[in-house]
Design a protein that fits this description.
The chain is mainly α and about 100 residues long. It has one domain. About 65% of the residues lie in helices and about 0% in strands. Helix 2 packs antiparallel against helix 3. The longest helix is centred in the C-terminal third of the chain and has 17 residues. It is globular, with a radius of gyration of 12 Å. The N terminus is likely disordered.
């Protein structure tokens, strides 16, 4: 079921993704909805543009340089916000590495 969730998340829009990331609170959507949408039209675009999960080797490892670039491009400076995004990318890489490519 987790692999299905990982695949399904590819097709969701940026706004829904940001709401899902913070449990529907809307904080990430309010802070980063505009910047992420300006860069990418979908979660799939984020995954393709940044290759955060494309580290190679062990499942669940992330490309730290790409993750940092994503944070910089979007303006994600707070550690708590970064950890929410990192957790999502890490879960996708572990559940189905191909889903992050």
């Amino acid at each position: 079921a987790e692999a299905d969730d990982a695949e399904a998340s590819h097709g969701i829009g940026i706004l829904r993704w940001l709401l899902d990331l913070d449990g529907g609170k809307g904080l990430l959507l309010a802070a980063f909805g505009g910047p992420v949408q300006a860069l990418c039209g979908s979660v799939e675009d984020v995954l393709e543009l940044y290759r955060i999960c494309d580290k190679g080797g062990d499942s669940g490892t992330l490309n730290a340089a790409e993750l940092k670039r994503f944070f910089g491009d979007v303006g994600i400076a707070k550690i708590g916000h970064q950890r929410l995004f990192e957790k999502w990318f890490r879960e996708r890489a572990a559940a189905q590495p191909a889903a992050c490519r």
